[in-house]
Specification:
The structure is a homodimer of 471-residue chains. Chain A is of the alpha/beta class. Chain A has 2 domains: 136 residues, Urease, subunit C, domain 1 (Roll); 289 residues, TIM Barrel (Alpha-Beta Barrel), CATH 3.20.20.140. In chain A, 37% of the residues lie in helices and 22% in strands. In chain A, the strands form 3 sheets. An 8-stranded parallel β-sheet of chain A has the order 9-10-11-12-13-14-15-16.
Chain lengths: 471, 471
Amino acid sequence: MQKLLTFFSIFTLTSTLFSSTALAAIESSRAVNVDLLIVGGSIVTMNAEREVIENGAIAITNGKIDLMGTRRIVERNSRAKRVINATGKVIIPGLINTHTHIPMVLFRGISDDLDLNDWLTKFIFPAEAKNVNEQFVRAGTRLGLAEMIRGGTTTYCDMYYFEDAIADETKKAGVRGVLGETIIKFPVADNKTPEEALAYTERFIKKWKNDPLIVPAAAPHAPYTLETATLRSIKEQSDRLDSNVVIHVAETKKERDDILAQYGKTPVEYLDSIGFLSNRTIAAHSVWLTANEIDIYKNRGVGSAHCPQSNMKLASGVAPVPAMLAKDIPVGIGTDGAASNNDLNMWEEMDTAAKLHKLTSNDPKTLPAEQAFEMATIRGARALHLDKITGSLEVGKRADIVIVDMDNLNQIPSFNIYSSLVYSTKSNDVRTVIINGRLVMLDRRLLTLNESAIKRDANAYRDRIIKSLGN
Amino acid sequence: MQKLLTFFSIFTLTSTLFSSTALAAIESSRAVNVDLLIVGGSIVTMNAEREVIENGAIAITNGKIDLMGTRRIVERNSRAKRVINATGKVIIPGLINTHTHIPMVLFRGISDDLDLNDWLTKFIFPAEAKNVNEQFVRAGTRLGLAEMIRGGTTTYCDMYYFEDAIADETKKAGVRGVLGETIIKFPVADNKTPEEALAYTERFIKKWKNDPLIVPAAAPHAPYTLETATLRSIKEQSDRLDSNVVIHVAETKKERDDILAQYGKTPVEYLDSIGFLSNRTIAAHSVWLTANEIDIYKNRGVGSAHCPQSNMKLASGVAPVPAMLAKDIPVGIGTDGAASNNDLNMWEEMDTAAKLHKLTSNDPKTLPAEQAFEMATIRGARALHLDKITGSLEVGKRADIVIVDMDNLNQIPSFNIYSSLVYSTKSNDVRTVIINGRLVMLDRRLLTLNESAIKRDANAYRDRIIKSLGN
């Protein structure tokens, strides 16, 4: 719908108005109909100018941000079916979790504090072999989605098995996802060979290609768990289908050393040498990168997912995030699967990222709060190649919006909005979540998922998993 | 009151009974009166055997744990005025925050992401000079106490100004505290010279010496901010009054280097050479320690407070905690002041400690969840020299007890209780808090503090602080 709006040309943020159409003078009586109106509160836009609109308002129509500005102007120019009052709260772009294995939330805490190899081979792989099927994946996805929505995550990037079922559950819950079906050289729960997995991803990508919420992808596990020929086939498919590719890269020193020994090149150099990297690649972890490999990411437009808590817990190392940011690499923040975290909490992940890089760079000015928040929002959207539609609050973008309390005891007093968001705000301070214009949580009540059924399922799987491992 | 109890000598935890008196057979009809009875739930005792009692119960009389065991037996042997049902929940010892500057919560986020020197001299010191007085300290203490109680902290160790007012507020709120009045060589808000401060601590310690909740202490700021003679006077006072001494030690490399240059000894060696250290010392941070200095801590019985998030945020370094634990040093966990964290959240602090030391030791087996939880409870109590009365759930100890949800979406499924507590549980999962036998929070409602008044005060101070800094 075409909308004509009064534009108050006053050069302070308190009277800013952004609209999806060319701005032109109209009478205020010609207010337009909108589906949902959020009024009051401070809007942290994360647009290029990093504008923060005090006492703002956002009008949403057909799932997108149609009008944004100060409350007075937006209210005058819109007639809403539904209004949410956010006075005293902060309105932010939905958080973007750039790396997860969502169903693994059912393995939360199944084993901890072990060597990576023992953890994988003695617990995770046996537990997966004995438990993972489509129903398990669906139950785990619903639990993970519920935890993420409650923490204000509106978009996530996944890599697991039965990704078609994950897409189905994600769409039903109304969450945005870049969802990658795993391709790996040994037999797994859904596909027994990489060829089978490639056929699966072909069907999967074609099926979901134009979905408004789901971005289907292939997810080759890692350079060390796939043959070169398979990686080439995956890239060919992604070129042909114009689809994303999610992959673990250089997570551990051992991986880096092994790839170097096998191919005479470090992981990113190896992947680049076979033409694998593109501006549709999402490279998780990327801990053991050289300066040259960061340049390769830059030149190819690769997005990256930084997972500080998982990298700490598994003692993998610290990704060179400040160096990546210095080159403006699109590096987002991810929780990784809950089995190595053990939660899907983006607030703690932001806080950890900001603090960890201060420590390792020996400089408390490194990764300031605003930059950490950027990584969890617009830079994360860039990492997932989704920044045209999400990651910031801008007219024309999809309405992925989170309303956050700012007056809880752990948050007050507040002197700087980014500091409050990154260093003081908790998952529990999130009140209301809108994804693609749809309310998925209102005042902490989940609207698209059944919390008690999710809990019942999780506990039933718990008993089954314990039995399966003979404990 | 003398109580005689049936002792079921069955060698499984499901029928364990601990009582404060010698165990003897009685008739079940001779149940004793108790003030408060907690029934159901898993009791994580943190006693020497690390017993976990399923479907347990704890009876509290006169502020102490009088009877503990399985629900069936404890219920049979006690007649309670009040019963709290903890079925499905976890009952833990109250958390112990071993290092804070509690009123600084009013400076939460006043400045971040700066060099330590700029942070202190451009923001913290001016803000303190212009704002800190007794009323400020009282308001900040109430806010900090409210945040800590809501997160299950029942004991904290403090270092600030007007500590007598902090003690007063802490006692009113019913929280346990080791509270240290700052002694420093430059003029501060309450005392203009170390001599004045020593006179203050003399009165302060004598006034609070036998309080059931407050442990008064002197808090010499650090080796680099006090003359040797003053440090000796403080030690003399502490010997004479049998009181604790709280001090920052070796927080930064610069401090270590400066002390080494000035005295020819590293900080702990220097303090030991002047006879300063004892089994009443609580040494915060202790980041830059040599193996010899760890041995000195061990030999003198010094307690230490590890503050991982503050040390990361200020890029101070990483304390040698695994080496300290290997020597069984009583090292607890502290948040430090909220200005360098920016919260008083012990759950995130435990989680960070467990993960940070895995990373820096390059070994994911380092600091497993149970050990991190121990640092936040019984080892923290040892660090504060309070382990005879708190830090674990044992008959005869003061009833500092926290009841925690274990079925929230971020916690399920749960496979291991310590993993769930350290890696998945959040401050918000704390439901009920009892300190010294008194209910201070019930089902997340604060009972000893006025939340709305606290918020009003915090916001008023926010405006005043901004004005004072000319922003």
